[in-house]
Amino acid sequence: MFIRRPVKFLVYLILALVVLISLFPFYWTFISSITPVSKIFSYPPTLYPQEPTLINYIRLKVYIPTIFQNIMNSVILAIFTPIVAVFLESLAAFAFSKLKFKGRDFLFGLVISTMLIPASVGFIPLFIIEVNLHLIDSLWAVFLPGAVGAFGIFLFRQAMYAVPDELMDAGKIDGASDFVLYYAITMPNVKPMVITAYIMGFIGSWNNYFWPLIVLRTQDKLTFPVALSALQTQLFESPWGSIMAGAVLLILPVLLIFALLSRYIVPEIGGAIKG
Amino acid sequence: MTSAHSRLLAAARYINKHRSAYLFISPFFIGFAVFGLYPMLYSIYLSFTQYKFRAPSLWVGLGNYQDIFNDPTFWISLKNTLILWLGTLPLQLLLAFLVASLINAFIGQRWKGALSGIYYLPEVTNLVAVALVFQLILDNQYGIANYLLKLVGAPSVPWLISEGWTRISTILLITWRGTGWYIVFILAALQAIDKEYYEVALIEGANVFQKAWYITLPILRPILLYLVVLGTIAGWQIFTEPYLLTRGVSNVLGGPGQAVLTPAMLVYDKAFVSLKFGYAAAVSTLLGVIIAFFSVIYFRFFRER
User: Fold this and answer.
1) A43 closest CB neighbour out of B118, B142, B239
2) Higher pLDDT, A127 or B55
3) What's the confidence (pLDDT) of residue B173?
4) Interface of A with B in 65-124 (CB under 8 A)
5) Of residues A265 and B280, which shows the higher confidence score?
6) Is the peptide bond before B27 cis (omega within 30 degrees of 0)?
């Protein structure tokens, strides 16, 4: 097919423009974080950093005294929540896809139908439940609801269907229990999905804002995003340099994961459609 | 042995025989029931009460709903969501479709993934960080956005100060973030289309637009439906973007003139600030009904065509 040169050039230009638009805010965040506060609001603003400095990062501890605990809270949640979530979801998905039992379709339908209902419907009762269980203001309050997600079951079930039944039969002949079938045979065959589910869970937990905002109260229990956004409502002038420094730290983990492991994230989303 | 007794026994034996299945799904289901299903049902019950702390709740029937309908703030929030939803969803779909089509047609296999990955990056980036930098960029006096406008001779824009522009800023934020997700989806779907269709079209002498209209779009229809449904469900629950974008800039919940106050923000405010759980539960139930309503319409509509 002949594609005329000017058309190709135009297309590349458009796509490059979109890349620029997509990446510009990241660039701006980074620059602002290393610009001293006196220069952030300088006029005219410049596209390159003036007098780069790390002082904003150091001052971050001043503005958010509990910053290390906050980051730690986010890290702990981000690492452990998806571990449990992936385990529970894949286990249930295994039962739904490979085992036959009464009520299987009904229960699965129940799970799926709740995906259509917005999550915000359940927030208030969830809050009340957690208050009654004295979970509020602890990491458990964020962890527990995060460990059960209907979407994961859906994905895992799709992936597990693809695992050939012959493998199951071979395992059964060798006398494997159902759990072994799950653990040793099915799971290794859906490893890409497992990794993807874990990474998405990690990112989701790290970025989680709304729920931790509601259930976490004391300063040192907050997760990092919540702690950072608290700087928005300071009575005196917001410390934008340090805010941007915090933003860089907030973005960094996901950026790294993305750069190194994007092949697990991006194609899988497309692959999920096929289901 | 009565027949009820023997049925119970049979059930117990069945469960025991398939115990691994039930065992496997139970941890998830227990969690799901406690943290997912029960809250949803309880929310509906709550909406008919006035929740009292450390005291039995007061049943008020439709009282909360009446209060909601009489509250002008609620209608404002509906209007805002309508604007935000209709402002973002078609825009995102259109842009995503265009970009995905361009990528599919002009970019080699190797770079497809990398490029769509870059476009997807805003979606996985922490919203707090993004909203903060948008506040900085769109600052009225010192933001780079207005500076660039001045450079090309355009007037500076009150991005986060005027009502209309606050809405536009929110739409920009949501679109900037969300389009990448749609791009990835649509691109994957485009790649799955059988090339033979296009070869036939080439022989028939179809041009680009005809190819898109007669081949691509019909095949893409179920995917697009799925995306529209998801986009609608998300659109009606928008909270974090307008909340973070206007926080610290405006003292009014929902930005200047409550321009971007959404029902979800209302739920948050009534529940966790005013502690009126019953009222907030009613709002969120209404929200759920609206969304379910749209989902049903979509499926009906697309099934008939």
Assistant:
1) B142
2) A127
3) 92
4) 88-89, 91-92, 94-96, 99-102, 104, 107, 110-111, 114, 116-124
5) B280
6) no
Cβ distance B295 to A120 less than 8 Å, yes or no, reads: no
Min Cα separation A54/chain B (Å) = 18
Facing residues of B250 across strands? B247
A182 in Cβ contact with A91 (< 8 Å): yes
User: pLDDT at position A274, please?
Assistant: 45
Q: What mean pLDDT comes out for the span A160-189?
A: 78
Full domain range(s) for residue A155: 64-233
How near does any CA of chain A get to the CA of B43, in Å?
A: 6
Looking at residue A151, the DSSP 8-state letter turns out to be H
Out of 1.10.3720.10, 3.40.50.720, 3.40.50.1460, 2.40.37.10, which CATH number does the structure's domain B72-304 have? 1.10.3720.10
User: Nearest C-alpha of chain B: how many angstroms from A159?
Assistant: 17
Secondary-structure breakdown of chain A: helix, strand, coil percentages, each rounded to the nearest 5: 75, 0, 25
Structure confidence at residue B176 as a pLDDT band (50, 70, 90): very high
Signed CA dihedral, A3, A9, A14, A19: sign only: positive
Closest CA to A200 of A122, A266, A113, A249: A266
Q: What is the pLDDT of residue A271?
A: 52
Q: Residue A96's closest CA among B50, B165, B91, B32?
A: B32
Best residue in B37, B45, B54, B121 for a mutation probing chain A (most A CBs within 10 Å): B121
The SS3 of residue A7 is helix
> Which residues does A82 contact at the CB level (< 8 Å), separation at least 6?
A197, A198, A199, A200, A201, A202, A204, A205
ipTM over 0.85: no
Number of domains in chain A: 1
CA distance A108 to A92: 10
